[in-house]
Design a protein that fits this description.
Order of helices and strands: EEEEEEEEEEEEEEEEEEEE
GO biological process, one term: cell-cell adhesion
Shape: rod-shaped
Strand order of the largest sheet: 3-11-10-5-6-7
Number of strands: 20
Pfam families: I-set
Radius of gyration: 26 Å
Protein name: IGSF5 protein
Largest sheet: 6 strands, mixed
CATH topology of the largest domain: Immunoglobulin-like
Distance between the termini: 70 Å
Strand content: over 45%
Number of domains: 2
Helix content: under 10%
Structural class: mainly beta
CATH superfamily of the largest domain: Immunoglobulins
Length: 224
């Protein structure tokens, strides 16, 4: 989707009129906390000032005559100049959960802005208390997988020997933790018929691959 906003102005320089527009505004981004987020804003020639805002607060200004004015190490920029366009790349370093929200590119003219949304997600911890568990024949056991300090709450699934386990065999509960973080507790009920490796997986959009924790369930059919 391309948003084009046009503003013509004849007041900055006497006798000189110019017209410019935002050709491409920023696009939505989802990143892990601690990583960098990147947003681009492209304007046509004739622009004078470009301001980046995060949740309504100005964080970086670019002036055509002198370049970027950076007031924080966390918000920096790169500039790319084409034959008749200019692109400002806003880089948000070491993103935090509180950075989530609206990122706006503005030229300080009425209706001359474009925005996107930043979602900062937190990769928490995931663990199963025991790495191995021995279960007697015909005995049922509950395997507990705990996810702590995530944002948003992770999606939990279970696998055994590289195959997904049916959702009816486990129950997952979610709770709100401190500082906007989430916890999840997933309990798998199992009556093993053989030794198998169980894997608990936790996933959020920003993770390239789900985080996992494993337990080896040793099937004991001895009569002694």
């Amino acid at each position: 989707v391309v948003y084009v906003f046009t503003e013509c102005n004849f007041s900055f320089l006497p006798g000189l009129g110019f017209c410019y527009s935002i050709i491409n505004g920023p696009t939505n981004a989802t990143v892990l906390a601690g990583s960098d987020a990147h947003f681009n804003c492209t304007v046509s020639s004739g622009w004078v000032i470009l301001i980046w805002l995060s949740n309504g607060d100005p964080v970086l200004t670019v002036i055509s005559s002198q370049g970027a004015v950076e007031t924080s190490d966390r918000f920096t920029s790169k500039n790319y100049t084409g034959s008749d366009t200019f692109t400002s790349e806003l880089i948000i370093h070491n993103t935090q959960l509180s950075d989530s929200g609206k990122i706006e590119c503005s030229t300080q003219k009425p209706d001359e802005s474009s925005f996107a949304f930043l979602s900062v997600q937190v990769n928490g911890s995931l663990f199963i208390k025991n790495s191995t568990l021995t279960v007697k024949e015909n005995k049922t056991v509950e395997i507990v997988c705990e996810a702590l300090g995530w944002a948003p709450a992770p999606h939990i699934t279970w696998m055994t020997n590289d195959s997904f386990i049916d959702k009816s065999r486990y129950v997952t509960q979610q709770s709100q933790g401190p500082n906007g973080l989430h916890n999840a507790l997933s309990i798998l009920t199992l009556t093993p018929m053989d030794t198998e490796v169980l894997t608990c997986l936790a996933d959020i959009e920003a993770l390239p691959n789900p985080q996992n924790a494993t337990v080896t369930v040793i099937f004991d059919n001895s009569t002694v």
